[in-house]
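anyone seen this seq b4? input:
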Amino acid sequence: MTNSTKTTFHLFWIISLVSITCSCQNDKGKKPDFVIEKKLVAEKVPIKEVFSPEFMTKTDDFLLISSSRSDTMIYTYATPSLEHKSHTGVKGGGPDDFSPLPGFCESNSNSNVYIWGYTPHTIRKFSLNSEGQLVFEKEFLLKKNEEFNNMYIINDSLFLYYLMEELCIKKYDLIREHPIDELRMEKENHRSSWFFSNRGNFIANDSTIVFSYLFKKQIDIYDLNTMELKTVITDNKKYPKPIVGNFKNTIQHYTHIVAGKDFFYAVYHGVAGYSDTDTDVIEVYDYNGNAIKKYTFDSRDTFPYLFEADESRGYIYGYNPKQEDYLLKIPLE
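predicted toks r here
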């Protein structure tokens, strides 16, 4: 083989390798291109309860809201009417009191609700009767007390949670009571964990983990069993990295994410800080990463910063702190 032939072959091999690498990356990449965009109008449903909602979850027939700063800490509302049905739970040292605060574990069960917080080491499973009252079913033991965030329970056997300080999603076997696997994001060496470039939130269902980034316009979709990356949703644009210690001038991208049965709902902010002129949007995707719809709103005053999606009835139920005397009921069609 001549030197000229060797050079040509070498260049061809490099180009082919680059092409294969790019092709593999492109197979996982999807752009957030939305064909359908719809403006949603919220109906304000008056409530008499005085609370400061922190978490929200739903079953087939009820919406549940937790508020650790209220005398009563869990409130139940019928769906889709949002009629108040019951309330329960107080902070204290009794066996049925909340020691820290109540936190909901999302699940693939439509009839049960899972609550962490009666003790730091337990999760309780409840059904709900026709009046929306909690009926105890089972208790799960957690051998280690950690800063649980974004909690999910799959098939009464798998517990997933997020350690924000570590940028780590963990899988825990509830039956054998031991950890199974974890997914760690790369983090910087500085101590300001809120400004880690890979900070975000995750959701899960019985086959998929979805991670949305706070400081990137990017959503990653992983296989639940293998923890392998399947899809990356990104516009492939470069954005400024977070400015450590400078909240006001740091751009925030995906600030919240909610799991539905068929779709997930990602709140996109896209600017630095918060002001009354900002109007966030809700991006809707299927679990393969295909862009389905984009929902816009008239103003921040009626945007549901805390919400659950009721896909079977076609509603979003939410709360906005500027509307403290109301819950928001938002038809999707």
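Residues 2-26 have pLDDT under 50 and may be disordered. Residues 33-331 form a domain with the Neuraminidase fold (CATH 2.120.10.30). kinda curious what u guys think
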